[in-house]
Amino acid sequence: MTTEDEIVPVLPPPAEVSANFARLADTVARLRGEVDHAHAVADGRALIELAKGVLMERLHCTPSDAAKQLETLAERSGVTPLEFAADVVGEAAEDRITEVTQEFLARAEGEESVAVRLRTAESGVLAAGDTQRVAESILEHALRPLGATAVAVWLAGPDGSLTLAGSAGFSAEEAARWRYVPPGVATPARSALIERDTVWYPTLAAAGLPSIGQHTLSGGGRVAVPTGTGGRIIGVVEMCWPEPLPAEPGRQRRQLEALAELCAHTLDTWDGVIAPVAANGAGDFLGELVDFIDGLHDPAVLLSPCLDGGHLSDFRIHHANVRFADPGGRPRSRIVGTRMLESYPLAAEESGLLDKIQRVYATGEPFRAESMAITTLVDQVPLTVLTDVSVTRFAGNVLLILRIQDDAAKLAVLLQHAQRLGRIGGFEENVVTGVITWNTELFALYGLPPNAAPLSLHELATHAHSDDAPAIGRFLRAVLHHKRPSSTAFRLQRSDGVARHIRVVAEPVVDGRGELVAVRGAYQDVSSQHWTEVALAATRDRLAETEQQAMERNRLALQLQHAIMPPAKGPIDMPGLRAAVRYRPAEKEHLVGGDWYDAVALPTGEVLLCVGDVAGHGIDAATGMVSLRNALRGLAATGAGPAQLLTWLNLVAYHLTDHVTATAVAAVYDPASRRLRWARAGHLPPIVRHRDGTATTLPLIRGSLLGAVRDVVYQEDELQLAEGDILLIYTDGLIERRDRPVQDSVSRLVTLVDGHDGGLEHQLDRLLTYSTADTDDDTCVVGIEVITVRG
Q1: CA 640, CA 650: separation in Å to the nearest integer?
Q2: Cα–Cα distance, 494 to 232 (Å, whole number)
Q3: Sheet strands side by side (includes 662-670)
Q4: Residues 748, 754: Cα–Cα separation, whole Å
Q5: What is the pLDDT of residue 127?
Q6: Which of 210, 217, 259 is nearest to 240 (CA)?
Q7: Distances from the Cα of 470 to the Cα of 117, 175, 464, 465, 477, angstroms
Q8: What distance in Å separates the CA atoms of residue 205 and residue 221, rounded to the nearest whole number?
Q9: CA nearest 580: which of 612, 609, 601?
Q10: Rounded CA gap, 86 and 80, in Å?
């Protein structure tokens, strides 16, 4: 027997040892390769199984069908099943965070530091299991390098409220105070929720909105970014800076929006929040929602969002309950399954209904509206109806209730508006039970609150002016005793001191035996009508008085004018000439003007001829005409020439009358030499008809209006007349027209004179007969015919 210590090993030769080691290394390498191959095969099988699971979920098929589909797709793609499985799993495993990261990196435009920060923030978000850790990771890795010191992540509630799901950079007490923001409170986060877009405040103090950290960060900038997917806003990320921000966000805005999107996947699964139902209706919740809608008494439709490229473009009408009535009268089968803009193409333009639905879907805040006009195209004909609209979000869908107003509702609304506009209040009084019913407008007429006790007809006199008591008594007797309709007016004395003029109309309601059971009627506020009638009566009195005064003034002016210048006057024979006058006053008495004429034999043996026209109408024009006519007569006695006479007459009009202005022609005729000297003051030049039958106008010599300016120099001209010549001096009432220039009218008058070969009297009558004037002004024509002087 031999012990262990006694064993002596026998070593092989060195060459044999080297060969053994080589064989051992080959065996180890072979075994390691077999193990690696087994691992690869196992990984490949696992990868293929994962790919089959993805296809089963997407195609809703069995495992065997998924395996066949995998092989078919791999063959079509020209790759091995394992490579195709890797692509399928890689595509399915691609997270939205990675997409946001790639978009953020593209926006960063090569800024390496920004890219690193976002990669770090992304890693923190992926590792974080709750929104609080997400907020801390974003602040630490991405926002602090941008200068921000705090961040708040808000979860948007379906009622418009905001819940603080996570925050960083604020004290625990501050976060606790802002844990919940009720609906309707204006904050930067709520502004972003309502606008559905990023809101940028250079300073929080300038915004004037309360928000978390408002005491410590009021002087700094604030940015609120809504976040969500598929057009549905889940929450808002609010980022805070201690210093003011630039007015224009620039490139930084895109970076912050990408950071906000990193929070969407944690908000979507935050504690207490149920993940929304997929838009394609998968799951049992959508079926339960359809059953719920079918149980509603209101007409309702269920809308599912239509996402094109990840963006909300429209809504599909998924279901309509049996009570739903299409505004255009179409059956439900033609509506269900279509898109909103297909069935209601005008919803986005005229009524804005689609925008309201998108806002509700995005923010979760319900929308209600009464009497909203909805226009539908029925056979290309627009049909508009009034509907009561209710829009509510249920998870990932929208419930729309459209209640079309029926004729009775429309009539009730119209009646309500008519009563309000007409200030009419209705009532009914049951004389048996004593129950009195008033509508809202009647309480307003009496100045009483809506919860006040209505007043009985027997109390009518106690609220009226004492002078109206007899009329109210007759009204009550007619209705309550004689049982016949009646009405009366009274002055209502309200408790607030306001007095109103009221008209009440009532009719009795009797039963089959003719007994009075009720009285119904209406009150109407006629105060405006009453005071209008009073004002109209006073106005009529003043108008009648003014009209009487005007008639008296016009009659006085006409009498004064006729006394000085009769409308018709026979020929005037003067030394060396025969004169005839035609004067036609205005057809309307209030247009009586200041035309005048005169023919006076002067002490020197000469003859003064003049025609004038005072501006204006009425008594002032008539008295002004008298003043100028008499002044010219007196001045002519001095023997001065026509130009000097008009110079003196201008001073009279300028200084001695009450702002009288006038035009005039003055002429002095010498019978011995048949020489005519004449001057004009703004008047139309005379017309001379020679004995050979030709007619021309005299030159338009210088001479301005009488009474316009103080110092005027008038030009004087001479004309040698011969026996048989006729001189015509007239006022503008003979030729003036609104539709043609004065020169055209004068030319027509010359033509009319040139074509006449009768005597002087007939010449003047013909001029008045064929006058084309349309201004209804006074007309004065003076004709002078040169005759032989008799010794």
Answers
A1: 15
A2: 56
A3: 594-601, 607-614, 662-670, 675-681, 716-720
A4: 10
A5: 44
A6: 217
A7: 93, 74, 11, 11, 11
A8: 9
A9: 609
A10: 10
Residue 790: which of 671, 692, 706, 694 has the closest Cα? 671
Residues in the chain: 791
Cα 11 from Cα 18, distance rounded (Å): 13
Return d(Cα 519, Cα 540) in angstroms, integer: 40
Element (H, E) at 52: helix 14-59
Query: Which strands sit side by side in the sheet containing 577-584, from one edge to the other?
Result: 568-574, 577-584, 779-786, 726-730, 687-689, 695-697
Sign of CA dihedral 162, 168, 169, 174: positive
Q: Are 178 and 215 in contact (CB under 8 A)?
A: no
In b/e form, how buried is each residue of 562-586, taking b as 16+ CB within 10 angstroms? Answer: eebbeeeeeeeebebbbbbbbbbbb
Tell me how far apart the alpha carbons of residues 324 and 343 are, in angstroms, rounded to a whole number: 14
Spatial separation of the C-alpha atoms in residues 141 and 107, rounded to whole Å = 18
Tokens 């979507």: give the residue: 268
The predicted structure's pLDDT at residue 564: 60
pLDDT < 50 positions in the chain: 1-11, 17, 20, 94-116, 119-120, 122-124, 126-128, 272-283, 568
Phi and psi dihedrals of 505, rounded to 5? -125, 135
DSSP 664-687: EEEEEEETTTTEEEEEEEBPPPPE
The 3-state DSSP class for residue 706 equals: strand
Contact 595, 780 (CB under 8 A): yes
- Give the whole-angstrom CA distance, residue 55 versus residue 69: 8
Where do the H-state alpha helices sit in 62-130? 63-77, 81-93, 96-108, 112-127
DSSP per residue over 306-374, as a string?
EEETTEEEEEEEEEE-TT---TT---GGGTTTSBHHHH-TTIIIII-HHHHHHHHHHH---EEEEEEEE
> Which tokens in the block code for residue 667?
């002429």
Asked if residues 401 and 389 have their Cβ atoms less than 8 Å apart, the reply is yes
Q: Which two tokens stand for residue 48?
A: 């293929």
pLDDT at residue 141, as a whole number: 82
Model pLDDT for residues 683-696, shown as the tens digit of each residue: 999 999 988 888 99
